[in-house]
Amino acid sequence: EKAGYKHFMAKEIAEQPVVLGDAIKHYAGAGGIALPAGIDFAGLDRLTMVACGTAYYACLTAKYWFERLAGLNCEVDVASEFRYREPPLPANSVALFVSQSGETADTLAALRYAKEKVKKIVGVVNVPTSTIARESDVALPILAGIEVGVASTKAFTCQLTVLLLLALKAGLDRGQLTKAEVQGHLDDLAALPGLVNQALAREGEIAAIAAAVAEAQDVLFLGRGAMFPLALEGALKLKEISYIHAEGYASGELKHGPIALIDRAVPVVVLAPRDALFDKTVSNMQEVMARHGMVILLTDAAGAREAGEGTWKVLVLPKVADLLAPILYAIPAQLLAYHAAVAKGTDVDQPRNLAKSVTVE
Ligand code: M6R
């Protein structure tokens, strides 16, 4: 069943070009975005997104997209907090629940809390027969195929893809994007599986970096804008399967505390495509280098040219449209965690203390 791979996680990482292609084809055809009837963001007062773990980080990323592309007021919360906080929900709002399994107890309880309060409940799930799918007004499958590894990989990038398509639809519905602009983004998206393949081809280089990272006690991940949630996800992935302590931070938060941790023994993974925020992130990275932190810069060729000097390692990824960078850069983050775990000899697919689906509180 592992199709020649050593672990399900490795197989699932490698499947991403195919499953992302499936999700893109399913939701975006020649006529533009193809979502089920009944998904309409026009005139909405708010979108609320709720999930746990990796699915929560997908929602945090999507907040950047919904705000930027659709001017939609967006709230994101972890399900375990949301359900007991009992937040007010405007009637003229949509609540969106993201879950690979569709069975996560807290996410399901949050969905039930939102029911009857909001206009529509949308479920973004991988298991189409799941409870969350059944109890949503509209369920959108992410089409990642069965995910066995406890560490979520292909489900994350497929969740991001479906959420991005929803944000583009919201942009259209709310008159913030023209059809031509949406088509431009869809063209970029069509090229994504090919870029993911190119990122996967860097596996050998990433494994070498991971072997060094495996020696560390603590690792930091930094990102700005939509790369910030990916910093959180990269840190979660690493700690889940390699048991190395890792934290993700917004780059700009560095000097508000975490910089105190930096010394010669702390690898700092900087997620920095050459986008509008690049210079800001680089200046944070230089603060790390000035304190002898071991910077691992993930960027594109232009970024490496401008800022690669003096870093410990640079991984050059293909140039990608700004909107899609969180999806593409997820690949090296996953591979880094995977190879660090392999180097440490931990149980990659069944990490200690964790279950694939958390069906109790
Ligand atoms: O099935 P779900 O997407 O609702 O699961 C949510 C989290 O339990 C899950 O993403 C967890 O954080 C993963 N182990 C992350 O790799």
TrEMBL record:
It is found in: Cytoplasm. Homodimer. One of its GO terms (molecular function) is carbohydrate derivative binding. The lineage of its organism: Bacteria, Pseudomonadati, Pseudomonadota, Alphaproteobacteria, Rhodobacterales. It is an enzyme of class 2 (transferase). Its main location: cytoplasm. Transmembrane segments: none annotated. Catalyzes the first step in hexosamine metabolism, converting fructose-6P into glucosamine-6P using glutamine as a nitrogen source. It catalyses: D-fructose 6-phosphate + L-glutamine = D-glucosamine 6-phosphate + L-glutamate. The keyword Transferase applies. Its EC number is 2.6.1.16. GO terms for biological process: amino sugar biosynthetic process; carbohydrate metabolic process; fructose 6-phosphate metabolic process; protein N-linked glycosylation; UDP-N-acetylglucosamine metabolic process. The chain holds residues 244 to 604 of 604 of the full protein. It comes from Albidovulum denitrificans. Keywords: Aminotransferase, Cytoplasm, Glutamine amidotransferase, Repeat, Transferase. Coiled coil: none annotated. Residues 37-176, 209-351 form the SIS domain. This is Glutamine--fructose-6-phosphate aminotransferase [isomerizing]. GO terms for cellular component: cytosol. The active site is at 356 (for fru-6p isomerization activity).
